[in-house]
Write a structure and sequence with these properties.
By secondary structure, this protein is of the alpha+beta class. Helices cover about 20% and strands about 35% of the residues. Strands 7, 8, 9, 11, 12, 13, 15 and 16 form an eight-stranded antiparallel beta sheet that branches.
Length: about 450
């Protein structure tokens, strides 16, 4: 069932967009149960899913439906009552469509949490009302800050086990607010809930007359995400060159377009752009999408761009607006989450994948490791172990064209890949560039 506000609003007049969110927190804080409750109470479970859920009660015991089984699909997860892998679920209300990532709580699965949260608009950190803020609460909040997730919800769960105490709710809130100023988080919401019983998840609870709202779903439906994408500087990493050579359509016979997903900004026909690494300036002639030619496009649409001049560009090239230049260089500084059992050490060589470009890279320095307990940097560590967060310096074989992660999450992120095994060993966030692309207008002339 939906909230009264949703039922009262005419669906045809409501804007429908997509919100991505992840749940995180320590083991047994109720992440999977919360997602199951959201799906169950919003009537987003198919009949066959519900039947399978009822059949799974023999695994969990007790003879009652375990809502966590909607996301905990592995048998090991059900038997141990924990989440191991990232699970994605989808549901919709008249106001919004949602993509959920249920991420693990164990310290050893922090790398999975980073993967699931990397594209989130909202991160929900669950806290057990009995335990309060623990190390994993701080760890996952720090990761949400590191990933620049725009909106954070602290869901204080299992309030029924502390007698719906208002004093306990405010005590935990004060514990969080004590270290939040040390992180770069601007939009933080605290909500008291019981995922098991559904209080304040989809419908308001009579057990919290001291809490004015909104419910968790009400907040997810109303949180503003329109400004989460960077629309200031146009960026198009080229995925491939589109040459349809249509046999009957003369317009498409000699067609040459550069296809990819816009990673920042807005583009219109007539706009001047520079194609890197060629360094050639030209003009946008046409913009094509699946629906045909359009007068403008913006992040994160997938488009095919037709330029006024024939330029040698392909996968790994980047088309950049002249109004906002990117940084460029071969010496990079970045924050990373290390994901491999073998520690990261100075001098190791990897492949670095950034947007559509893959280049060779070597780690030249380990600047510091973040102490999750104190949120203080530990200078010059000898290595970064699995799930460590730290700052490093890299040198790449070819210049990258990028923004800092704080400015643009799409052009400021990368992964490190181990040669030989093709294993992803780190997720990285680039720090501000030392240099900027400053082309002279008229660099390209036929």
């Amino acid at each position: 069932m939906f909230t009264e506000e949703i039922l009262a609003a005419p669906p045809v007049t409501l804007p429908v967009d997509i919100l991505r969110f992840n749940t995180c927190g320590s083991v047994d804080n109720g992440k999977s149960t919360l997602i199951g409750r959201l799906l169950y109470d919003s009537k987003s479970i198919m009949e066959d899913q519900l039947e399978a859920l009822e059949r799974s009660t023999d695994i969990t015991g007790g003879g009652t439906i375990n809502l966590a089984n909607l996301t905990d699909g592995l048998r090991a997860e059900r038997e141990q009552g924990i989440t191991i892998d990232v699970a994605y679920r989808y549901f919709a209300t008249p106001r919004r469509k949602f993509i959920i990532a249920d991420t693990p709580g164990h310290v050893q699965y922090t790398r999975n949490m980073v993967t699931g949260a990397s594209n989130a608009n909202v991160s929900i950190v669950l806290v057990d009302a009995r335990l309060g803020v623990i190390e994993q609460s701080r760890r996952h909040t720090a990761i949400a800050s590191l990933l620049r997730i725009p909106h954070l919800v602290v869901a204080i769960n299992k309030m029924d086990l502390v007698g719906w105490s208002e004093a306990r709710f405010h005590e935990i809130r004060e514990q969080f607010e004590a270290f939040l100023p040390r992180l770069d988080l601007k939009d933080v919401k605290f909500i008291p809930i019981s995922a098991l019983h559904g209080d304040n998840v989809v419908t308001p609870s009579s057990n919290t007359p001291w809490y004015p709202g909104p419910t968790l779903l009400g907040h997810l439906e109303s949180v503003h995400i329109g400004s989460d994408w960077n629309l200031n500087g146009f960026r198009l990493p080229v995925q491939w060159v589109n040459r349809p050579n249509h046999p009957t359509d003369a317009r498409l016979y000699d067609f040459r377009g550069y296809s990819g997903q816009i990673a920042g900004g807005i583009v219109r026909p007539g706009q001047q752009v520079i194609v890197m690494p060629a360094g050639l300036v030209t003009t946008v002639k046409e913009i094509w999408t699946y629906d045909g030619s359009v007068p403008e496009a913006f992040c994160p649409q997938s488009i095919t761009l037709v330029l006024a001049d024939d330029i040698d560009a392909g996968r790994g090239s980047m088309i950049i607006g002249l109004d906002h230049h990117t940084g460029t260089g071969t010496d990079l500084q970045a924050k990373v989450c290390w994901m491999h059992t073998r520690p990261l050490e100075r001098g190791r060589k990897y492949f670095l994948k950034h947007t559509t470009s893959t280049v060779q890279a070597v780690v030249t320095e380990l600047t510091h490791r973040l102490n999750i307990g104190t949120l203080e940097p530990e200078p010059a560590p000898a290595a970064l172990a699995m799930n460590d967060l730290g700052e490093i310096r890299l040198r790449v074989a070819q210049p990258l064209y990028y923004d800092s992660y704080a400015v643009n999450r799409l052009t400021g992120s990368f992964i490190l890949i181990e040669p030989g095994t093709n294993t992803t060993v780190a997720a990285g966030m680039l720090l501000p560039a030392r240099e900027a692309v400053k082309p002279e207008l008229g660099d390209f002339r036929i």
